[in-house]
Amino acid sequence: MTSQIQGIAASAGIAMGKAYLLKTPDLSVTRNTVKDPQTEKQRLGQAVEQAKVELEEIKEHARVKLGEDKAAIFAAHLLVLSDPELLDPIQEKIENEGVNAEYALHEVSQMFITMFEQMDNDYMRERAADIRDVTNRVLAKLLNVTIPNLSLISEEVIIIAEDLTPSDTAQLNRNFVKGFVTNIGGRTSHSAIMARSMEIPAVVGTKTATSLIEQGKQVIVDGINGLVIVNPTEELHGKYQETQLSYEAQKAEWAKLVHESTVTIDNHQVELAANIGTPDDVLGVLENGGEGIGLYRTEFLYMGRSQLPTEEEQFESYKTVLEKMEGKPVVVRTLDIGGDKELPYLNLPKEMNPFLGFRAIRLCLEEKELFRVQLRALLRASVYGNLKIMFPMVATIEEFLAAKEMLLAEKDSLRQNGIQVADDIEIGIMVEIPSVALIADQFAELVDFFSIGTNDLIQYTMAADRMNERVSYLYQPYHPAILRLIDHVIQAAHRNGKWVGMCGEMAGDPIAIPILLGLGLDEFSMSATSILPARNQLRKLSKQEVESLREKILSMRTSDDVASFIKTTFLK
């Protein structure tokens, strides 16, 4: 009997084949008291070294098969296994509590995993998978069990798994693994990112795939719509074969647009940029025809380590990105950390409402030296490209002016010391708090640009925690209240001769794209792999036509009304 499982479309495309149910080894641990903690610490050390050897092999495999940027994931994993922030507490637990290495490793790693999982940023949350991947490899060594080697698969299959770790994904042989389906994960997980890079159709976050799909059953992975079909009928099989051919033809058309500009049919040009987290992400931006970087999340420089990055470390990262982009605009967001995004070495107190708490620009304006170091690194790097700086979580004009004053003071100081700084660095803010959107006209007189962060703007406007599944129905990008705020920001900026970008998920949403074009958004920043489909869509739209529908859309009453109208008008 045919059945369907809904998940998250992680990597577009259609794949068909028989299910390969990936069974993960039992890595459960028990707490044992040991007589000789030193021996346990030695066991831990040996297991870590053995895991490093395996990771070096996987890194090399990834480098050959996938390129340097993907191999960098495993370089980062190797760093985790050398990080005293992780290893010291494990050894202390063994020493102080006299427990076995497996238990100490599990307890400490779980603490880090939980910390990352509780963050409000999708990318940061997915880093929990990296910690789990690395520590499970060590745990397997301690328990003397074998982690499956997916590179040994020698027939065409669809992998069905609870989750795929980055190292699992790196070992996939594209000749045999036609697609994969997981119970957990999201679009920003490393496995999803690598699946897109390898162009393997994938559906993640199904919750139930491993329990509903049996070994060897025929499966269709619809990575376009996030759907998994089990035991398809001949009719369904034929239908999806046609979809597969159609999709491949569409991809070939998109690929032709890599070096084309993003111009509508009535000759209106917009900029398509990408969101990145590390310098390694720049390659994907360029391969997908990105015209700039609309959001460089600098907080990743501060994560997964035991102390703040130095000014020199930061300078090198910013310089690398600017140089790689060869003069294309790069919008760098200053540190967005604090609140729910913890850095253990800052020893920040727990908060009752971290989403509304001491974070981002609020933290930077109080931890002034931390902020100054970042500003100096950015200013020094500015001469290597087209740098624009924006401040996150600004709620008041006073906050923006204080941050700008610090930036200009560091600029003067560097120049007085004979260090070159670019003259034309634009300074902007994230619009993610309703207070800023509502007085955007006053902010527009002070800033050089706005970048709308829709993930938080929606959350704060709708008063709904987007991490809370019970109120997730209120996360409504097309809600008229959200659209009116966005419209208000764009109109205010344009009246003052300023430009407006968007770096939230909404910028790459096919339903939102016609609306945002009609509202006058200047820059759309999204994941790199969304750029070409978005360019294809924008080049078929008329700015004048969507603009003429602005009042009609803004006067609608519900999110569903808006979505339905856009689908029937532009996505038929």
Task: Explain the overall architecture.
The chain is an alpha/beta fold and 572 residues long. The chain has 23 helices and 16 strands. The chain has helices at 37-66, 68-80, 84-97, 101-117, 122-143, 166-170, 190-198, 209-212, 234-255, 282-287, 311-325, 360-366, 368-381, 397-416, 434-438, 440-444, 454-462, 480-495, 512-519, 531-538, 543-548, 550-554, 559-570; strands at residues 3-6, 8-11, 14-21, 157-161, 177-182, 202-204, 218-222, 227-230, 271-276, 293-297, 329-333, 386-391, 426-431, 449-452, 499-502, 523-526. Helix 1 (37-66) crosses helix 5 and helix 3 packs across helix 4 (101-117). The two termini are 31 Å apart. The mean pLDDT is 90.
Set out the fold topology.
Elements: E1 3-6, E2 8-11, E3 14-21, H1 37-66, H2 68-80, H3 84-97, H4 101-117, H5 122-143, E4 157-161, H6 166-170, E5 177-182, H7 190-198, E6 202-204, H8 209-212, E7 218-222, E8 227-230, H9 234-255, E9 271-276, H10 282-287, E10 293-297, H11 311-325, E11 329-333, H12 360-366, H13 368-381, E12 386-391, H14 397-416, E13 426-431, H15 434-438, H16 440-444, E14 449-452, H17 454-462, H18 480-495, E15 499-502, H19 512-519, E16 523-526, H20 531-538, H21 543-548, H22 550-554, H23 559-570
Parallel strand pairs: 3-4, 4-5, 5-6, 9-10, 9-16, 10-11, 11-12, 12-13, 13-14, 14-15, 15-16
Antiparallel strand pairs: 1-8, 2-6, 3-7, 7-8
Helix pairs in contact: 1-2, 1-5, 3-4, 4-5, 11-13, 12-13, 13-14
Distance between the termini: 31 Å
What is the 3D form? globular
Q: What is the radius of gyration? A: 24 Å
* Strand ordering within the main sheet: 1-8-7-3-4-5-6-2
Poorly predicted runs are none
The helix-and-strand class reads: alpha/beta
Number of separate strands: 16
Helical proportion?
Answer: 40-55%
* Count of runs of 4 or more consecutive helical residues: 23
The largest β sheet comes out as: 8 strands, mixed
Overall pLDDT level: 90
β content, as a range? 5-15%
